[in-house]
Amino acid sequence: MKVIDPSFSVLDEFFVHGRLLEQIERCGRVCYKSEDRISTESARPFIKGIIKRGHESVLEMAQIVLEIEVDSELTMHKFFERIPRFCQVDKLERKQYLLSGNPRVFRDLARHHRDLKVVKAVLKRLTEFHPVLFEDLVPRFGWVPQDGIVVRVLPSEEIENLPLEQLIRHRVLLVHLIINRAVSHELVRHRVASYLQESQRYCRYGEARFGGEVVFIRPCFFKEGSDEYLLWSDAMSQAEGIYLKLLKTSSPQAARTALPNSCKTEIMVHATIEEWMHIMRLRTSKAADPSMREIMLALLPEFERRFSAIFGPIRDSLSPENCKRSQGTASALLSGT
Length: 337
Ligand SMILES: Cc1cc2nc3c(=O)[nH]c(=O)nc-3n(C[C@H](O)[C@H](O)[C@H](O)COP(=O)(O)OP(=O)(O)OC[C@H]3O[C@@H](n4cnc5c(N)ncnc54)[C@H](O)[C@@H]3O)c2cc1C
Description:
- Helix content is 47%, strand content 17%.
- The longest helix has 21 residues, at 227-247.
- Helix 5 (103-112) crosses helix 6 (117-129) and helix 14 packs across helix 16 (320-333).
- A four-stranded antiparallel β-sheet has the order 2-7-10-8. A four-stranded antiparallel β-sheet has the order 4-5-3-6, sandwiched between helices. A two-stranded parallel sheet has the order 1-9.
- By secondary structure, it is of the alpha+beta class.
- It binds flavin-adenine dinucleotide.
- The site of flavin-adenine dinucleotide has 9 residues, from helix 13.
């Protein structure tokens, strides 16, 4: 068995370079731990396969921000009457709006609200922008151009320069976390975010590519070498032995029933800055689970480095003792940005 510390990386580079499809593939491959299959050509076929299998949560792992100009406010009001839950809309000026969401949001718009002028105009633009994400939903005679509606996809530089209020609602932060299964279970309770997680149903840790062993996250509760730590370590070793024995006759999904909460998992979290602010406030509080707090206190300075006006006040609200801890753990846990 192997024991490691929790860690994280903030995945910025896909956003900066507008590599939407590659970002989706990178996140999707965490489930199967098949990152080694990523190549310069692999994103499109990967996404096609995902759509074919109906595994559309993978398509939540990217954000598209649009600027929409309409010739009549009524056009937009009709859209507001049915606005889906996971997209954000802000009015910029008269007859000008900012609309954002992940590709799945726009796919649902195409399925359920294709009679709306705004939806037709948006889907026409998005299908030209990234055909692989939307081409299966194009109507028989194509998306009809909508006179009086102009849709523009915002590049990352423009998103980054949005006024703070809009930035918070439309800019997304993607984080790859390596944590234990108890913490990941707490994290996925934040429903407004999107997640993809290493699958214990598919990953067979007995295989050579996993080192033939189970990886556990070092618990923050017990000092290494203490009686409690030794007891914990003994329990993990026994669980690993039983898991590997079960794998000889059973599938990973059956054998995993013997695995404990300390088991390492990898999870991609894709959420707007607004949702991350909510997560940070709840999960850096003293009331939070110390294992969750440990990783969030380390992540907070990384967010603050990028968006100091937003995350600085959250860090300031922590006690001085927490701030010290936050700085200390950041360098220890940071595995790359
Ligand atoms: C210290 C602590 C202790 C906890 N203990 C427990 C526990 O003992 N048992 C337990 O089950 N959970 C527990 N939780 C988890 C907690 O109940 C929440 O599920 C979790 O913190 C997510 O918070 P949220 O619902 O505010 O955030 P999100 O799910 O991210 O929601 C963000 C916002 O979206 C809105 N929203 C999202 N979904 C809905 C919806 N369906 N209806 C209406 N509004 C919605 C709300 O405005 C909400 O503030 C605990 C959390 C903490 C921090």
